[in-house]
Amino acid sequence: DEVLEGETQAFDTAVLMALRTPGNPADPLGPAWLEEAARDVTALGSFTILFGLVFIVSMFLLLAGRRRNGWFLAGATASGAIVSTLMKLAFDRPRPDLTGVARVFTASFPSGHALASAVVYLTIGVFVARAAPTRGLAGFAIGCAVFLTLLVGLSRIYLGVHWSFDATSGE
After folding, report:
1. pLDDT on residue 160
2. Which of 40, 50, 83, 126 has the most CB atoms at less than 10 Å from its CB?
3. What is the pTM of this model?
4. Which of 99, 116, 122, 101 is nearest to 48 (CA)?
5. Which of 153, 86, 140, 141 is nearest to 113 (CA)?
6. What is the C-alpha separation between 109 and 112, in angstroms, rounded?
């Protein structure tokens, strides 16, 4: 509701500009290796990487006799993609107007990378946590899943292809 009403725009713009080189909004702050690292991290939320991961993990679960988990992962991922697409169509929020940072093809809200990462990494994290022999290892699995999800969302903001509320409120 706040995004639709434009209530988040001032905050979103301030965050985005705080991460840019003064006088050159197309250039993220920091050394070139940091921008390259952010591109690598953002790829962890890309369709190609997530589809491959979901396919491999789902096949493993199906072959290991954990059919319900395999189908659940595939279904949750497909559902997340549908929800993301429908939300993008409904909100139709323009992306930040920064050129040359990364190629983008859809509306800004919600971040498909962040939403899909949350669905995939958190679902896999829960599966691993349930199989963990100790609570500490279960917590570690969930923590890693949350960390990956947050990194992907933050990389989208740093690269300037999403507003802060797109990559943090879309999940």
Report:
1. 82
2. 50
3. 0.82
4. 116
5. 153
6. 8
